[in-house]
Amino acid sequence: MKAGIINVTGYAGVELARLLARHPEVKLTSVTGRGAVGQTLSDYFPHLAGLDLPIEPELSGSVDVAFSALPQKVSAEAVGPLVKDGVRVIDISADFRLKNVAEYEEWYETRHPYPELLENAVYGLTELYREEIASARLVANPGCYPTSAILALAPAVQAGIIHSDIIIDSKSGVSGAGRGLSLTAHFSEINESVMAYSVNGHRHLPEITQELRRLSPSADIAVTFMPHLIPMTRGILSACYATVKDGALAAGPKGLEELRTLYVDFYRNDPFVRVVTASPMTKHTLGNNDCIVFPNLDLRTNRLVAIGCLDNLVKGAAGQAIENMNVMFGFPETMSLEALALYP
Amino acid sequence: MKAGIINVTGYAGVELARLLARHPEVKLTSVTGRGAVGQTLSDYFPHLAGLDLPIEPELSGSVDVAFSALPQKVSAEAVGPLVKDGVRVIDISADFRLKNVAEYEEWYETRHPYPELLENAVYGLTELYREEIASARLVANPGCYPTSAILALAPAVQAGIIHSDIIIDSKSGVSGAGRGLSLTAHFSEINESVMAYSVNGHRHLPEITQELRRLSPSADIAVTFMPHLIPMTRGILSACYATVKDGALAAGPKGLEELRTLYVDFYRNDPFVRVVTASPMTKHTLGNNDCIVFPNLDLRTNRLVAIGCLDNLVKGAAGQAIENMNVMFGFPETMSLEALALYP
Amino acid sequence: MKAGIINVTGYAGVELARLLARHPEVKLTSVTGRGAVGQTLSDYFPHLAGLDLPIEPELSGSVDVAFSALPQKVSAEAVGPLVKDGVRVIDISADFRLKNVAEYEEWYETRHPYPELLENAVYGLTELYREEIASARLVANPGCYPTSAILALAPAVQAGIIHSDIIIDSKSGVSGAGRGLSLTAHFSEINESVMAYSVNGHRHLPEITQELRRLSPSADIAVTFMPHLIPMTRGILSACYATVKDGALAAGPKGLEELRTLYVDFYRNDPFVRVVTASPMTKHTLGNNDCIVFPNLDLRTNRLVAIGCLDNLVKGAAGQAIENMNVMFGFPETMSLEALALYP
Amino acid sequence: MKAGIINVTGYAGVELARLLARHPEVKLTSVTGRGAVGQTLSDYFPHLAGLDLPIEPELSGSVDVAFSALPQKVSAEAVGPLVKDGVRVIDISADFRLKNVAEYEEWYETRHPYPELLENAVYGLTELYREEIASARLVANPGCYPTSAILALAPAVQAGIIHSDIIIDSKSGVSGAGRGLSLTAHFSEINESVMAYSVNGHRHLPEITQELRRLSPSADIAVTFMPHLIPMTRGILSACYATVKDGALAAGPKGLEELRTLYVDFYRNDPFVRVVTASPMTKHTLGNNDCIVFPNLDLRTNRLVAIGCLDNLVKGAAGQAIENMNVMFGFPETMSLEALALYP
Fold first, then answer.
1. What is the DSSP pairing of strand D303-310 with strand D236-244?
2. Does A228 reach chain C within 8 Å, measured CB to CB?
3. One-character DSSP codes across C209-258
4. Parallel, antiparallel, or unpaired for β D303-310 and D291-298?
5. Does D331 have pLDDT greater than 90?
6. Rounded to whole angstroms, what are the CA distances from C261 to A78, C128, C155, C281, D143?
7. What confidence tens digit (pLDDT) does each residue in A217-246 have?
8. Domain ranges (residues) in chain A
9. Which residues pair with A238 in a beta bridge?
């Protein structure tokens, strides 16, 4: 099977290339990149030694699946025609994640070029939409923050055991900001420091809210989402807080057992979600496709504290995209994603 | 005036030495340290070049003020007799922070050796207890996390504008774990990773709760406190979340103005608290005694999001201790603490 | 085929487990570890999720190959009996690297427990000793620094184009210091700092000298080796300096071409050495088994400046050990070592 | 006394502001900055809280001393007229460091706008040119690498105890690359990696060579200089290698004693050079103006290994500039530079 990557020169794009290079059923046959046209992949990225594919201005030849790692809007502009031509597409940008066009246009401050594709686009959180993904023509790969937060909260939200006021405090490595230059990704500004950003609303908020509401349509979910930048390259850890409804769980340690059982059951068939009983670290996901979920209770205040952590470029981007491709084409879901995390 | 430091060989102790070395009114005349007796300060810590004071087993000579940077319990055992002898003491350990002995003994799993001193010990958060500190014989210097969180929340709690459910999500550099060896301070384990720890209750929780309740005795403050370790040496940033009471602030941006005015007024006379209008980074406090406080509102959900950040070894430990000493002895509060932050 | 790991609980040991877990021809059947006996691999190392092998006090059952990741001396004590029993062994410690027992005993300050095994032990730098490794019963896996430095210098030394005075200035990440606690691996001491260490002689010096002399027995090679610790987890980069003999290379850029050809030819059949024409970064080897070699000339002073870089836990330890195992058992040399580097 | 800073918005400029803000004899009265005109210093740099000086397009009012932190060429263009107007100038750029105009123009690939000022410009390495600096109108502040390397080598070179072949291997934090955006200062590219750069000749090489030759005019000094970028913000450590002349020092440990005495004597009157007997770390200079020099011998090969380390923004830039100003205006050399290093 043949695959193409649009905009291979960013961090999500090059991670797709790294993972696809070892996929036994897929051959990467075409890659595009703005500003690197004419070079080969291994010229531009020395760690991709041996991948001598030329970087082209547009995908060439026919491909069975195309991944887009372009920024929003230009991504929709690039993949719209492909979808209409019958190529199955996995879009890593935000363009097809929000079902409500007006909401998209408000948050992203642009007109959507292909609103007609939204209806059939599938939100690519594999654990929640595996069936729809299997037959999808266009998959909207989730954001890195939403993947960590939604997976940490989904069992509790769907089961209706928490109140609707939810706080999500996330910490991210810097690679999430991409390969484009900016002062907020400048080494000396970021190293040895931590800060919250997008304090008046991060673009991943509507995506999180949309999905939590789909899990519990009758609840009036109200999310406060606060992302932080911390001095590391890869990794996201989201701590999610909500008050447990009275009587929803047994009192004391027994309630904690019920909570864990709820989570383990929810993710029983998901190869990449690991429900754990001790506080996880992002290092335990470095370079692999796991999302580690740690559901816990603050028994003093009867609050759920659910932590989700992952590698933002793998389960938070390229890895989940390949997982979705595997589902779409009937390959084993874990194919080419078997690597254990790199530790330490 | 003469000062002594008990246990100068940990990070808080050596930071005290660094700051006292340049204090124009105080002479550091005696230091103790377990395991380094016989060496001089500059032998043991090359960056203290020129400080040739010998490290002794016990404080020698008479001192006007003693700082203890010992761990809990052994600190109380060391400073108890000094206080009884009339030496004014600033204790950086947790031993005299909690007013309730039983609570101390439960959280620290030890019997308190000098419970009779608790009544007159003053909690050394300078901004809240400046007057009591001025005449105190024994000051219990606050923890690093509590300093950042209490200062971020105090104006809102005292004014009664928020509900009693409070979430505090803190991120700390590793120096807070001290100079003692442990896997959780081992470079390769901590670098490039983030994790929550003490997930079932950190010892700074009762201290935070005690102080917030003193600010609003009638509210039934219920705090969830979740500390995280991030890969940097110095710095703490605490994000504090609580729902604003209906009508407590005007709707929309006007409410935000009211909130900021409340905070600015509250800290009007505090030289080391800076109330700001943009999200701060811990780097802006590196090596200095400021606590930067950023009060903000999530207008979508009507929630207070108040951020406090500081250098855990300065305002979070040694700097605040010297600030308290300045207050106790009538020196200008900022004396020897004037350094601007080291940036970048 | 069955493999065992002795002392899986250090960084080299756990990296062996990570890499062997995906080897298609080898089954990891037994692991030992001091201090973790009774736990499973995935209990002790959460990133090895799914590896439920118990950690035992001694290897159990029969194995075809055993890896030892013990420290020196105790490693020889553990593998000596295995070798005598006919198990093929790859020893990651330094115990069988030095051919001269007296030199070993001087540098490691201990008596060698199995000097009689030295004669038939093969130095496991795959590129230099592939044939001997193929039939070896005992392979002494090289040190991380020596691998980077010897590979950077071997073509020039063997060709006799440089004088015998050689300077090797190496920079290493902290994981090379292992998982054992020490102040020189304590986060707050190492982060944001660089230092040279072992300034009066590092134990890898005799190993480097031995191997360079074997490449050019008539030259009186005199090496100054200076290792530095830098604030990162994985990676070693060695810069090697030596004066080019008059007339050994053509003048100017043509000489550089000759140099590069010499290196490319030397490593023509080595899948894991990449000879490059631009200054490499350790990041380009993260998690994979490559050693990148960059031969260059300082044309102003007619000096060779050859750089070698690698991941100290992969090509510098566990990866090379598996490469050697592949050679010993007739598997393709790259088997289970195909992963591209993790970037960024 | 009044001082101005030209281009305060880079890292050297802002560090000048930080240090001048606390100078008891100097008032910072005017600052300029490209791209930040109209803001105040504390708007632009929150850590300079309280410094409400406006950032202007040109220096305003009269100043007694001007510091230029502009890049090369534009710096000469800015300070040339000031010098001619009688303002005493300390130029942090490279424009007036090289005595040979042709050499400058070749390395910096530009025509020098004020070659006539070169003759009377003084190279501002305080330890070597204190007297000339005292009366200078124009001081060319040294580069960060040259300061570390020249101070590490000067005593040995001047005493004539080493041969003329010198290798300097330097490791630098990223702040040396400045605040301007580039991929080589992009967090995710630099973090967790080390690389050599400017491998065919760094612009600090001619400066180092010029000064070492002035110390030993008859020797034909030939320097290979190799800078490396390591993942930290501040700090430079240079390891310098050269062969000791036969008989220049006594054999064995006695020679080491002679070497140390030579260094201690050389720097007897220099408040900011600390000659030490153990391998130093850059952390011991963080934020202060020391250069730590560690002279050592590789007794196996009779080679000098001299290490110099410093904070590249302090002794390597802004601190040394203020030290020079102190000398020029008759203030104590250490004034406003007394801070001890920030540790850890």
1. antiparallel
2. no
3. HHHHHHHSTTS--EEEEEEEE-S-SS-EEEEEEEEEPTTTS-STHHHHHH
4. antiparallel
5. yes
6. 44, 18, 10, 22, 37
7. 999 999 999 999 999 999 999 999 999 999
8. 2-120, 145-312
9. A170, A308
Asked if the model's pLDDT at residue A5 lies above 90, the reply is yes
**A302-328 core/surface letters (b: 16 or more CB in 10 A; e: else):** bbbbbbbbbbbbbbbbbbbbbbbbbbb
Which residues on neighbouring strands pair with residue B195, listed in sequence order?
A: A281, B229
The CA–CA distances, whole Å, from A290 to A20, A185, A330, B197 equal: 17, 25, 20, 20
The yes-or-no answer on residue A144 being catalytic is yes
CB C324 within 8 A of CB C91: no
Least Cα distance to B336 among B264, B292, B277, B288 occurs for B288
Q: Please report which confidence band the pLDDT of residue B319 belongs to, taking 50, 70 and 90 as the band edges.
A: very high
Separation CA D50–CA B156 (nearest Å): 26
Give all strands of the β-sheet with A273-275 in edge-to-edge order.
A195-196, A222-229, A162-172, A236-244, A303-310, A291-298, A273-275
Mean local confidence (pLDDT), C156-162: 98
Query: Residues C109-134: pLDDT tens digits?
Result: 999 999 999 999 999 999 999 999 99
Closest Cβ–Cβ partner in C171, C223, C286 for D230: C171
- pLDDT tens, residue by residue, D149-181: 999 999 999 999 999 999 999 999 999 999 999
- CB nearest to B186's CB, from C181, C231, C232: C181
Residue C50 in this model has a pLDDT that exceeds 90 = no
| One-letter amino acid for residue D90 of the chain | I
Phi and psi at B304, nearest 5°, equal: -75, 130
Residue A184 at interface with chain B, using a CB cutoff of 8 Å = no
Task: Name the band, by pLDDT with cuts 50, 70 and 90, for residue A34.
Answer: confident
Q: Which of C187, C192, C229, C246 best probes binding to D when mutated, by most D CB atoms within 10 angstroms? A: C192
Q: Tell the CATH topology of B145-312.
A: Dihydrodipicolinate Reductase; domain 2 (3.30.360)
| C-alpha distance from residue B294 to each of B155, B281, B309, C343 (Å) | 12, 10, 9, 35
Please answer yes or no on whether D181 and A179 come within 8 Å at the CB atom.
Answer: no
* β-strand pairing of C122-123 with C88-91: unpaired
Contact: A224, B241; criterion CB under 8 Å: yes
CB A238 within 8 A of CB A291: no
CATH number assigned to the domain with residue range A2-120, chosen from the 4 options 3.40.640.10, 1.10.10.10, 3.40.50.720, 3.20.20.70 = 3.40.50.720
State the virtual CA torsion across D301, D302, D303, D308 in degrees, nearest 10: 120
Interchain CB contact of D22 with A (< 8 Å) = no
Q: Touching check for C256 and chain D: CB below 8 Å?
A: no
Closest residue by Cα to residue D190 from C235, C196, C289: C235
* Structure ipTM: 0.97
User: A208, A272 in Cβ contact below 8 A?
Assistant: no
Q: Which of residues 230-249 of B touch A (CB under 8 A)?
A: 230-235, 237, 239, 241, 243
Q: What is the pTM of this model?
A: 0.98
- Residue D156 to chain C, least CA–CA distance (Å): 18
pLDDT tens string D69-126 = 999 999 999 999 999 999 999 999 999 999 999 999 999 999 999 999 999 999 999 9
What's the pLDDT score for residue A35? 85
Contacts of D71 (CB under 8 A, 6+ apart): D93
Task: List the structure tokens of B8.
Answer: 């100068």
Tokens of A34: 């703005």
Number of Cβ within a 10 Å radius of residue B80: 20
What one-letter code names the amino acid at C75?
A: S
With a CB cutoff of 8 Å and minimum separation 6, the contacts of A276 are A292, A293, A294, C46
Cα-Cα-Cα-Cα torsion D100, D102, D105, D108, nearest 10 degrees, comes to -60
> What does the alpha-carbon distance between residue A121 and residue A137 come to, in Å, rounded to a whole number?
7
Query: Residue D162 is encoded by which pair of tokens?
Result: 């080493």
